[in-house]
Amino acid sequence: MASLFDRTGRGTITVAGALALALAAPSGVFAQEDGPVELSIAANAIEGGKNEAEALWIQDYVIPTFEQMMADEGRDVSVSFEGRGVDDEDFKAQLALDLGAGSGDDVIAIDGIWVGEFAQAGFIAPLEEVVGPEVAEWEGWEQIPEAVQRLASFEGARYGVPAGTDGRIIYFRKDLFEQAGLPTDWQPTSWAEVLDAARQLKEALPDVTPLQVNAGVSMGEATTMQGVLPLLVGTGARIYDEESGLWLGDTPELREVLQFYADVYQNEELGDAEMQLRQDGRDRSFQDFGEGRIAMLIEGDYLWRGVIAPETGIVPIEDREDLVGWAKIPAVEPGRGIEGQDFVSMSGGGGRVLNPNTEHPEEAWALLSFMNSQDAVLEFVAGQTRITQRQDVNDETLADDPLLSFVSEEVLPITAYRPGLAVYPQVSQLLQTAVEDAAAGDSVEEAAQSYQSELEDLVGADNVATDG
Amino acid sequence: MAFVTPAFVLIGIFLIFPALWTIYLGLTNYRLTGLEAAQPQFVGLDNYVEVLTDPRFHNSLWVTVIFVIGSAIFGQAVLGFLLAWAMRDWQSRMRRVVESLVIVAWIIPSSVVAFLWIAFLDGRSGTLNAMIGSEVEWLISQPLLSIIVFNIWRGAAFSMLLFGAALSSLPPSYLETSRLAGASTWQQLRDIVLPSIRGHILTTLLLISLWTFNDFTPYLITGGGPRNMTELLPIYVFREALGTFQFGYGSAISTILLAINLAVALVYLRLLRDRAA
Predict the structure, then answer these.
(1) Residues 305-364 of A with CB under 8 A from B
(2) How many other β-carbons are positioned within 10 Å of the β-carbon of residue B224?
(3) Are B242 and B224 contacting, i.e. CB atoms less than 8 angstroms apart?
(4) I need a labelling partner for B19 at 20 to 30 A (CA). Which of A346, B81, B130, B155 fits?
(5) Of the candidates A101, A84, A30, A70, the residue with the CA atom closest to the CA atom of residue A355
(6) How many CB atoms lie within 10 A of CB A413?
(7) Nearest residue on chain B to A90, alpha-carbon basis
(8) Which residues of B touch A120 (CB under 8 A)?
(9) Does residue B2 lie in a domain region?
């Protein structure tokens, strides 16, 4: 032991000293100098892969334009972006670990549903705290509807700027509807009418799956967002009541939803129960809808933009405007939806937040507000039409797209959002399990009761509402 | 002492510290995000109680037991031994061809293998259904059987190699003498071969059962579904800990898994020692 140290001890100390100096240098020495202000952007987007349009927009438009803009003001700012294309959950874990360690990029793209849990963990802070009161004076807020702003807010404070939203509707194949003798301008006004149409399709076209409502645990959040929650708000119930702070337990409304699943997948076999259990069930449903083997499908506008889009889609439908129709999701019966609505929907969306650890809050905010300026957002949707956060941009661009303007005008006013609390993803999993049970043949009562007891374990019995 | 110190330091940093840290985390409600990320609370044995009373854990344990017994002990070990036994007198070229084929199954990366098996078992356009002319969704109607067959296919090579080595260590004169004395193949196996290579058998069983117990590849095929029917313990840990980022709870399950692993290893080591004594 001793001899080992005698021989190398001095060397070790010298090396350690040099290391310490090197580590201390960036913050201690060089930061004092007047180098460029360095900012970085994090987004789950990459050239040639996931969310490519966003990656290209950041690389080719945002960075050069913003750097030029700053240079014109006499400020030396350099922005970097390293693309990545991983599963959303992995991206979330990366961000949480970065932020938890006090590091990470300056401007960060996150899913609206993570805002609450990141805020609760202290990973992100309200914009006015990170930057200052000037945030409130930004011109963009007037262009972003209140409901959309909530996507990047938590407990009434703005944590970031939302980056657009979406809505859920029922898509249907007009060609199949025609063959089954159904109208191609179909708009059901109750669940019964949806089921009637499905029965008629089943009768006329035995090889076609009449209806796909996502039901499997393996479809993850798509089951909750495109299945359980739109149905639930159609019964007049919300999964989480903000006033009382209660989560929805085994209530008559929940059972109505479960009964719908049981009817579709078991009692009347209007949907394909096996598809719900498949690992790739959702991809399979896209494929089948694209190829005309599924007649009705509840999905978000992503299906239109990303799946069946003629050139860029995964399952392109060349003449989608002729073949594919869409309708609002009805409440159980007219007037029974939340707020007494006849029709309902669910919406989500992402946003961009500032890292509270940023060394240059002022420049970071300049970058974030630039990314959400009218020019920048217009540039973003130039390649791919979608519902943006800004009303002035939507007014200009959506008119060309019949589906997106339908969602923007007819669906967003009646839509609902998920609660942004840390425990929500787990509640969502319980809902997925409950509807999978019902779709796979368990009785509605069993599915509802086991959901209730799991939910009580999760949030505590005091926080569960059991009567409608 | 001086020479082993670096080794101990490395083991300490990379093995013992993480293990102790896992045990510590298992006693907290630490999560990746949310309030518990900011202020994790010490919750004592709550996580353990919760795991041990979770019906999904019971289901998972049971699935794992069937999977290990079916695919490792009966499947890989028996098939591996039969292959090694059948090939012991083969000419070396023939033998090398068969060995290579079996070993290929073992060395292809898991993700590739998983994809091949999904394609093989697919209901609509799978190879298996094309061969037998059916339309069964194997991964949905027979999920556990599917991953057991898969794991036998994948792991038989390893047992075959170990048993092959063991058999070649057996002096040929034993078998020849017994054959001259009129012993049948079964009698040879029972009275000469198996007792002589008992140590090898136990070592092989130990390795493949621990390996199968901790195998995560089935997740790539079934994702633990449908309806948790193939949710092996490692998949259960993964879904509970990383699906919802409950690190405290996940650590508690991992500790339980570690204890089960140790118990299995101890049983085998005990058997090995009995033989030595």
Answers:
(1) none
(2) 26
(3) no
(4) B155
(5) A101
(6) 13
(7) B242
(8) 33-35, 37-38
(9) no
Pick B244 or A209 by higher pLDDT: A209
Is residue B159 domain-resident? yes
Give me the residues paired with residue A325 across strands.
A172
A405 half-sphere exposure, CB direction, 13 A CA radius: 9
- Residue-level pLDDT at B94: 83
Q: Quick one: DSSP state of residue A205? A: -
Cβ-Cβ pairs closer than 8 A, A with B, add up to: 80
Q: What is the CATH number of the domain that holds B252?
A: 1.10.3720.10
| Count of Cβ atoms closer than 10 Å to residue B46 Cβ | 17
Question: Is B38 in Cβ contact with A1 (below 8 Å)?
Answer: no
Please check whether residue B35 lies inside any domain of the structure. yes
Total domains in the fold of chain B: 1
Q: Cite the DSSP H helix spans in A41-182.
A: 52-56, 63-72, 88-100, 115-120, 127-130, 146-149, 174-179
Structure tokens at B207: 């390795």
Distance from CA of A337 to the nearest CA of B (A): 30
Alpha carbon of A230 to those of A35, A344, A347, A453: distances in Å? 52, 7, 9, 23
Q: Dump pLDDT digits (tens) for A115-146.
A: 988 998 899 999 999 999 999 999 999 999 88
CB B198 within 8 A of CB B95: no
Does the ipTM surpass 0.90?
A: no
CA distance A454 to A461: 10
**A15: closest CA of chain B, how far (Å):** 18
- pLDDT, tens digit, for every residue of B62-88? 999 999 999 999 999 999 999 888 888
Q: How far is CA B245 from CA A120, A130, B71, B249, in A?
A: 15, 27, 31, 9
pLDDT over 50 at A6, yes or no: no
Comparing alpha-carbon positions, the chain A residue that sits nearest to B38 is: A121
Within A125-220, residue ranges assigned H as helices are 127-130, 146-149, 174-179, 191-204
- Residue A344's φ and ψ, nearest 5 degrees, are -140, 170
Could you tell me which of A411, A374, A410 has the C-alpha nearest to residue A393? A374
Strand A464-465 versus strand A246-248 pairing type: parallel
pTM of the model: 0.82
Contact assignment for A440 to B245 by CB distance below 8 Å: no
CB contact under 8 A, B31 and A100: no
Position A252 pLDDT exceeds 50? yes
Is residue B7 a part of any domain in this protein? Answer: no
Contact B34 A120 (CB under 8 A): yes
Give the residue numbers spanning the domain of B231: 13-276
Find out whether A417 and A150 touch, Cβ atoms under 8 Å. Answer: yes
Give yes or no for a contact between A335 and A342, defined as CB atoms under 8 angstroms apart: yes
Residues A372 and A351: their CA atoms lie apart, in Å, by 10
pLDDT at A30 over 60: no
Check residue A8 and give its pLDDT.
Answer: 38
Helix (H, G, I), strand (E, B) or coil at B264: helix
For residue B71, the model assigns a pLDDT of 94
Confidence of residue A311 (pLDDT cuts 50, 70, 90): confident
